[in-house]
Amino acid sequence: MLPLFSPLVWLLLVCVLVQLYYVGYYFLPFARRAPEAAADAPDQPLEEPVSVLVCAHNELENLRRLLPLLLQQDYPAGFELILVDDRSEDDTYLYVQQLAQYYPHVRLVSVGRTPEGLSPKKYALTLGIKSARHLRLLFTDADCIPATNQWIRLMQRGFARPADLVIGYSAYAAETGFLNKLIRFETLLSGAQYLSFAWRGYPYMGVGRNLAYTRAVFQSTKGFASHIRSLGGDDDLLVQDAVQRGARAVVVAEPAAHTLSEPATSWGAWWRQKRRHLSAGRRYRLADRVRIGNFMASNVLFYGISVALLFSRPDWVPLAAVWLVRTAAVCTAYGQLGRRLDDPLPVGVLPFLDAVYFFYYLALGISLFLYRSLRWK
Q: Rounded to an integer, what distance in angstroms lies between the CA atom of residue 231 and that of residue 252?
């Protein structure tokens, strides 16, 4: 039998208890929260005009898919669509200019060069925000599409709660293959954290594919000034700075307010994408790093300790019991979150995806520690 006084056994139990706390306090209550008002619900707050900003670098084919869907948004209060052409070498400029001839609310901001040492995307976004005519700003990426024609309306309602920041969810399209399922699992798990933490009053990040904030928020943080030379963080580090200066954040996570993206199609592309995203985490506030780190570390340690016990003890019954409790809890939480966010994964593969992801996460962490150089487009 596994000795109850074994330090590894006690540490394994502590890891499970930490995960059960996150499941019981953050994930399940968020998944079971009251539904948000539908787009056509009566007695909704008055809408205000909004500037929708998209930054693109050689994204012509994606823009041909995205921009018509943005122009079809049902938003009577009115919106302008600002496309920031960031040093594109394709026909992005000509395409947007043609649209602007037919749609007066389509505007083009061109970036010829990025000053030395600055993040290209942050510099491009700054120019786009400075040209915006409205006080509310809504952001997405060129490789995304809105889930419905009510996206703008539902995201803008978040400001009426009231709020200065509106944090949305962006899913990846479901395709065949294990990599696609793993990417969608990682997106769901990340969403479970930043959405439920913000819902509980601890906002720490958003995703630039579906994020809104006011011009006053951007001005209060002096734009991206604190991290303008870092490649990542045009979304999460902006949220960090804004919350630190008193900005109020709300979550809008109904499926009709989502955006959808095409996932990476190779392990290498996803590896580079995740390295860039995780690199910004070093600049998070200490409380946020502790809150996120406790959850991630408890999962990584759980698998590491389990492997050590599996190969060092002859009796696997206690270990199997701990695994069963932990697996049932996390699969229940992830299953309910997937259904609530309209991003479900087969329940039968959740335990396997969970294990693979946390070993992959450990490898990413080691990679960032050893090799910190990153590249942008």
A: 27
Q: How far apart, in whole angstroms, are the C-alpha atoms of residue 211 and residue 191?
A: 13
* Spatial contact of 145 and 65, defined as CB atoms under 8 Å apart: yes
Q: How far apart are CA 372 and CA 204, in angstroms?
A: 22
At residue 126's C-alpha, the angle toward residues 122 and 131, to 5°, is 150
Strand-pair category, 165-167 with 211-214: antiparallel
Q: How far apart are CA 86 and CA 298, in angstroms?
A: 41
Label residue 368 by pLDDT band (50, 70, 90). Answer: low
Q: Compute the average pLDDT of residues 44-50.
A: 85
The CA distances from residue 7 to 89, 98, 305, in Å, are 59, 68, 10
Give, as one character, the DSSP assignment of residue 27: I
Three-class SS state of 357: helix
Q: What's the CA gap between 364 and 306, in Å, rounded?
A: 20
Amino acid identity of residue 163, one-letter, is A
CATH class in words for 50-269: alpha beta
Distance CA 315, CA 153 (A): 58
Q: Are 224 and 120 in contact (CB under 8 A)?
A: no
> Is there a cis peptide before residue 346, judged by omega within 30 degrees of 0?
no
| Range list of β-strands (E), the chain | 50-56, 79-86, 106-111, 136-141, 144-146, 165-167, 170-172, 211-214, 249-251, 259-261
Cβ neighbors of 61 (< 8 A, separation 6 or more) are none
Average pLDDT over residues 353-358: 90
pTM score: 0.91
Residues 213/247, Cβ–Cβ less than 8 Å? yes
